[in-house]
Amino acid sequence: MKHSVLKYPEDIRLSINDIESYTNTISSYQSIEDNQLLFDGLCRRFAIIGEALYQADKLKTLPVTGKVKIIGLRHIIVHDYDTVRAPDLWNIIQTKLPLLKKETELLLKELDTANEQ
Q1: Assigned domain for 1 exists
Q2: Which domain holds residue 50?
Q3: 81 FRET partner, CA 20 to 30 A, in 49, 71, 98, 116?
Q4: What distance lies between CA 74 and its chain's CA centroid?
Q5: Kind and range of the H or E element at 95?
Q6: Count of domains for the chain
Q7: Cα–Cα dist 18/40, whole Å
Q8: pLDDT tens digits, the chain, 117 residues: what are they?
Q9: Would residue 72 count as lying in a domain?
């Protein structure tokens, strides 16, 4: 089934919202290390973000900062899962996710505007 390019940024937006929801009450990576369910949920959401970005980019080149690293994180989570560490996820959440969220929101507006025309 072939999807519209709009589907993938929307999946990214939803996963970012979930990550924010999962982590809005924690203040360090220790909470992620101490909660396997939280760790698994974050990994799942980051894998979805990486796959959605990969699939969307096959349809249309997307202007997303760190795109190769984001897709690479998905590969690590899926294939080298035993190397994923809570401090690394926490660092990404704190330093990289806000920019991805902003870029995704802008991209969704641009794609939506283009579809209306």
Answers
A1: no
A2: 7-116
A3: 98
A4: 9
A5: helix 86-95
A6: 1
A7: 13
A8: 567 778 999 999 999 999 999 999 999 999 999 999 999 999 999 999 999 999 998 888 888 999 999 999 999 999 999 999 999 999 999 999 999 999 999 999 988 777 665
A9: yes
